[in-house]
UniProtKB/TrEMBL annotation:
Metal-binding listed as a keyword: no
GO MF assignments: ligase activity
UniProt cross-references to NCBIfam families, sorted A to Z: ligD_pol
Gene: ligD_3
Statement: the UniProt record of this protein carries the keyword Transmembrane: no
Protein name as it appears in the record: Non-homologous end-joining DNA ligase
Domain DNA ligase D polymerase: 30-284
UniProt KW keywords: Ligase
One Pfam family in the UniProt entry: LigD_Prim-Pol
Superkingdom of the organism of origin: Bacteria
Annotated organism of origin: Actinomycetospora chlora
Length: 314
């Protein structure tokens, strides 16, 4: 294969170097295969990332090698790649992070060896006001995906009771994520409090399956941790359609609620997702239309004040 190829996308020409480098060892998929995958799901990945500060997880030699967590846009980036400046008060520093607006921005990031995209749950217009509440179902070691499915059903029941519409996806690992669009009217602290209140309600309904205990030593074996702390400022998780850094090139794949009983996390890879996307389109396409008011969850949080296990915010 040539030392470089040029990819035309959105009126931009992105030069992809080392296109034949194997990034995913299980089936031998390459950097160029990764770029082709992201082009195949371009509308979906851009919708998931659009206008959000985004950390890039880069694997310069492939996913079996070193991973680089890249917050700042690398020097030498084209001037057309958009950024948003975010501040880190704890360190009194700022970073100009990638802020995807088009498929060309995604393919440029692939050129920079980005495999995973980890966006904030807020947007550039108001970085300090989240517009996305994230529910992370994270199984404890040894917990089968069947247990995650059962917890997802309880989470959906609580969402239905709230009148909230959740958009589920596989994590690309062993868990599930559910995203809920919210009005950008609350601080990260408030969204985090609301997420904990939701988690505690799920835990009350399925105490043998769910834990919200922050400290790992306090979590019962065989449970699923509902990780409410993923809503903390600058905590990010892989977006919908993001590839994960696994040898099989798994994808964090949007799924329909009625699919969850039948799918396995390994079903979704860069080899299988293009055909699925061509058939079903973006299952998260309607998320911006289903906006939930967090106030009822904040009332639940007030009700639960004083319940232990909430660590200091980091």
């Amino acid at each position: 294969m040539a030392d470089a190829v040029e990819i035309e996308v959105d009126g931009r020409t992105v030069r992809l170097t080392n296109p034949g480098r194997v990034y995913f060892s299980a089936r031998g998929e390459t950097k160029l295969d990764l770029a082709h995958y992201y082009l195949a799901v371009s509308d979906g990945i851009v919708r998931a990332l659009r206008d959000r500060p985004c950390m890039m997880h880069r694997f310069p030699t492939g996913v079996d090698g070193e991973k680089v967590h890249q917050k700042r846009l690398p020097k030498g980036a084209p001037d057309w790649v958009p950024t948003v400046r975010v501040r880190f008060p704890r360190y009194n520093r700022t970073a100009d992070e990638l802020c995807v607006a088009s498929p060309a921005d995604v393919i440029w990031a692939v050129q920079m060896s980005t495999v995973e995209f980890h966006p904030w749950n807020s947007r550039a217009a108001d970085v300090e006001s989240p517009d996305e509440w994230r529910i992370d179902l994270d199984p404890m070691p040894g917990v089968e995906f069947g247990t995650v499915r059962r917890v997802a059903a309880v989470a959906r029941e609580v969402l239905d009771d709230l009148g909230a519409v959740g958009y589920p996806k596989t994590s690309g690992g062993k868990g599930l994520h559910v995203y809920v669009r919210i009005r950008p009217e609350h601080s990260f602290t408030e969204v985090r409090r609301a997420a904990l209140a939701f988690g505690r309600e799920v835990e009350r309904r399925a105490p043998d399956l769910v834990t919200t205990a922050w400290w790992r030593k306090d979590r019962a074996p065989g449970t699923v941790f509902l990780d409410w702390n993923q809503n903390t400022r600058d905590h990010t998780i892989a977006s919908a359609y993001s590839v994960r850094g696994t040898p099989e090139a798994r994808v964090s794949a949007p799924v329909a609620w009625d699919e969850i009983d039948d799918v396995e996390p390994g079903d979704f890879t860069i080899a299988t997702m293009p055909a699925r996307y061509a058939e079903l389109g973006d299952l998260h396409a309607g998320i911006d239309e289903d906006v939930f008011d967090l106030r009822v969850l904040l009332e639940w949080a007030d009700r639960d004040d004083g319940v232990p296990d909430e660590p200091p915010e980091v």
